[in-house]
Amino acid sequence: MDTIAEASTLAPMEQFILDHHGSEPGWLLARRRQYAARYLELPLPVRQRTPLKNRKLERIPIFVPTPTTQLSPVLESRHTLFNLITVNGRSVHANLPKSAQNEGVVLLSLRDALIQSPELVQETLGSVIDDAVDKFQALNAALWQDGLFLYVPPRVTLTEPITIQHYGTDGASAIFPRTVIVLDRESVVTVNEQYVSESGNEKSLWSCATEIVLRDGAVCHYGAIQQLASSADAFVRRAARVGRDARINWNVGEFGAGMVVSEHLSLLDQPGGQAYSTTVFFGSRSQHQDYTATARHVAPHTASNMVARGVMKDSARSVFTGVTDIKKGATGSDGRQKEKILMLSDTSRADAIPSLLIEENDVFAAHAASAGPVDPHAIFYLMGRGLTEIEATRLIVHGFLAPVIDSIPVGDLRDEVWAQVERKILE
């Protein structure tokens, strides 16, 4: 039994779990079995503008282990740039500065954290993301590999970012990264997470999950860059539970994969919680990108602000849905969103869909969205001033994206986003 289509009964999947995760605690094995059963029950997700049935996902082998015990040559020269690297889901490099270790910071694979901090892992794993609502999220819950666990103790501020890379080699057909981040009271950290894969002829499936727990007063600057190969189809779910007077800053760059369904959720269920979201995406060739950003206001006096800008070229297709969801009782909340998408070709297509779900009166909520083609007169004007068409396009794209990218507070992440934009312009 290798593919999604062949995963029609529970017993073989349970056997796979026992063979590869049999040494884990009983509660985790039971959890894996629970979500394996849920995966088999659930149909393919229904995405109104992303028809998944056309992707032939059922042909991708998902129960073929790809163990990796060393860094690939591609990463060997760069491993010092990252605090933790996984290859095909397996942790192959971990390095936490001594100063952070002395302050009690824990950075381990989830497998190792089960030994060092079992109660904290059990308390937080699956506490933010609902693994039962989506077929591919249930698959991640059942089959995540080594995973990643980060804990920052109370009132600890890390001045250097924690950098993580999930790397997939050619031939790895199914990869399931799982990241759990816990920030204790009044701690501050910057986390940059990257998803990268080698180009290959065979399709691969990535189902990725990152859940963040922010206790009272904590601040997390979370950055993500997705640059998977065009042969990859990816499902990415991120979520943060924001404590009293805590703050999550999302900075997400989506550039890769043949198809990606990506979302991040800010759960503001304590007074004073704040969520700020910046998303930059660029589609080319025949890429299909489907993004959702949600801020769910449950407690009073919470605030959210989401900004997204995207560029489409060739025959690429994108959908960006922003959701500000203010629940009954969330008085004094403030939710804002703005989305803009620029299309560089007549064959590209983009939808910007803002949504306000308001169940309370004493709140402020606003949205703005637009999607439209590049002005051909602007290209003509710039070419008339001696620029080539590529140079003119680059100038317009930079002017369009600069207000958003330049607002990213982390310099290394900001530079990487610009580098990916340059790559996509020339692609």
SSE arrangement, N to C: HHHEEHEHHHEEEEEEEEEEEEEEEEEHHH
**Helicity, as a percent range:** 10-25%
Mean pLDDT: 91
What's the end-to-end separation, in Å?
38 Å
- How many beta-strand segments? 20
Strand content: 35-45%
Strand neighbour order, sheet with most strands? 2-1-5-8-10-12-14-16-18-20
Which terms would index this structure?
single chain, 10 helices, 24% helix, alpha/beta, 427 residues, globular, 38% strand
Structural write-up:
The chain is an alpha/beta fold and 427 residues long. The chain has one domain. Helix content is 24%, strand content 38%. Strands 2-1-5-8-10-12-14-16-18-20 form a ten-stranded mixed beta sheet, with helices on one face. Strands 3, 4, 6, 7, 9, 11, 13, 15, 17 and 19 form a ten-stranded mixed beta sheet that branches. A hairpin with a 2-residue loop joins β1 and β2. α1 packs antiparallel against α2 and α5 crosses α6. The longest helix is centred in the C-terminal third of the chain and has 17 residues. The chain is globular and about 70 Å long. The model has no long low-confidence stretch (mean pLDDT 91).
List the topology elements:
Layout: H1 10-21, H2 26-41, H3 73-76, E1 84-87, E2 90-94, H4 98-102, E3 106-108, H5 110-116, H6 118-124, H7 135-143, E4 148-152, E5 162-168, E6 174-175, E7 178-183, E8 188-197, E9 204-214, E10 219-227, E11 232-242, E12 247-254, E13 259-268, E14 274-283, E15 288-297, E16 303-312, E17 317-326, E18 334-343, E19 349-358, E20 364-373, H8 376-384, H9 389-405, H10 411-426
Parallel strand pairs: 1-5, 4-7, 5-8, 6-9, 7-9, 8-10, 9-11, 10-12, 11-13, 12-14, 13-15, 14-16, 15-17, 16-18, 17-19, 18-20
Antiparallel strand pairs: 1-2, 3-4
